[in-house]
Structures are given as C-alpha cells and as structure tokens.
Amino acid sequence: MSNARDQRLASTFVTLADTLVADFDVLDFLGVLTERTVELLEVDAAGVILSDQRGGWRPAAGSSEDAELVEVFAAQTQQGPCVDCVHTGEVVASADLVADTGRWPQFAPAAAQAGFRAACAVPMRLRDDVIGALTLLNTQATAIDDDSIALGQALADVATIGILQQRAVQHEQIVSEQLQATLHHRTVIEQAKGVLAESGGMDMHLAYLTLRAYARAHHRRLSDVARDVATTTLDAGELLGDPASTPRS
C-alpha cells in the first residue's frame, strides 16, 4: 500500500469517526462513505441501504446513479446481497450476478442491466444492532477480493459507530425521527438533482456533486439547499452560475 493511500485511508477513518458536530449531515456523511469506498477499495461502485426503523430498508447513498439504482432494485424486490446481509448480519457476496439469477430472480437481472456483474454486501453493524449495509459493486464478473471485503467491513464498522455515537446523544424517539427525516431529505435531494440536471444539461450524479459543492462552500446543510432548489426558493440558474458550485475532487 502506497504512502499516499495510507494517508488517504487514515484521513477517511478520521472523517467517518468525527460525527459529534452540531451540523452533522447523515446524507453527506454516507455520500463520503461510498465515494471513499470506491477510491480505496478499487471497486467500480458502492451503495448504502439503511433501516427505516419500521422493519423496512431504503436506499440512502451511492457513489453513482447506477449504484443508487441497484439499491432501489434491492429495496423494491426485497432481494439481493444487501437485503440478505441486513437480515443475517453477515457478509453476502456474488462473483457473478447473472449466474445467481436463481438466488435472486428479480434483483440479479436488474443489477446486471444496470451494468454490474459482481456484488458484495457488508453489514453496518454494532454488536447485534444492524442499521444497514454497504454494497461493493464491480462491472465485471470478478469476485471482490478478501482484502477489499475486510477493508470495506472496517469502513462500514467505523461509519456505523459514528452514526450510532451521534445518535446516542439524543433521546431514542429523536433518533427514530432523525432516520425518518434522513429518508425524507433523500427524496428532496432527488427532486433537486432533477431540477439541476434539467436546468444545467448534466447527468444526475454531476447534479448531486454540484449541489453538495454549493452547500459546502456556503456552509449550509445539503438537505436545506436541496429543499430550496426543489421549491424554487433558490433559483437553479443562480446556483449553477455560482463558481462555488463547481465540484472538486
């Protein structure tokens, strides 16, 4: 492992552990988790599915639009590695989703159509408390290697501890309401991405990066900026014309 990658990995663990801040934004946090997962594990994409605290599971973040779509397929069909992972609390993998159509008859063809042939889901779990799953995706029918799975699990563990640590300072009822609000904000962000994509002639993932860049540059919550764009309180043209909205690596 190179020195630069070591430093990036250390920085990622610090970022995922640092959640006890007043303006903690779960969606931005999960976005960072998926992006750093792709960067550090050298997989093609990553996605997160979260508990909605009512017995269901909902897509919460993805490193790309296709990765998010795979999590939507899983939630809709109640099939796939991530769904099995959250139910068992164990790693669930497929080296070839096409070959696993019998295992997941609805999910596997949909994931393959989205461009992914291999998947591995690791639980976001602290002891017996499973709050979601991090899914690693490859476009080729090649198994995710053991080292990548181990590192993916470590990232998921730190992220889970960070989320639960942040929630622990609040009352249990507020924690549940926060999860519901997170999923609601996710819907608003999707609406705002659509507005920006249409206005700026860009794809949905670039629209998300633009939205996030603007929010960070102006020290605002991602969900608040998305709400303003979706309700036209913030004009899409004004946001797109702001130099601060240019995504940075």
UniProtKB/TrEMBL annotation:
InterPro entries, sorted: ANTAR (IPR005561), CheY-like_superfamily (IPR011006), GAF (IPR003018), GAF-like_dom_sf (IPR029016), GAF_ANTAR (IPR012074), WH-like_DNA-bd_sf (IPR036388)
- The domain of life for this entry's organism is Bacteria
Q: Output one GO MF annotation.
A: RNA binding
Where do the ANTAR domain residues begin and end?
169-230
| SUPFAM superfamilies on file | CheY-like (SSF52172), GAF domain-like (SSF55781)
Keywords, A to Z? Kinase, Transcription, Transcription regulation, Transferase
One Pfam family recorded for the sequence: ANTAR
SMART domains annotated for this entry?
ANTAR (SM01012), GAF (SM00065)
Name of the protein: Transcriptional regulator
Look up and give the organism this protein is from.
Kibdelosporangium phytohabitans
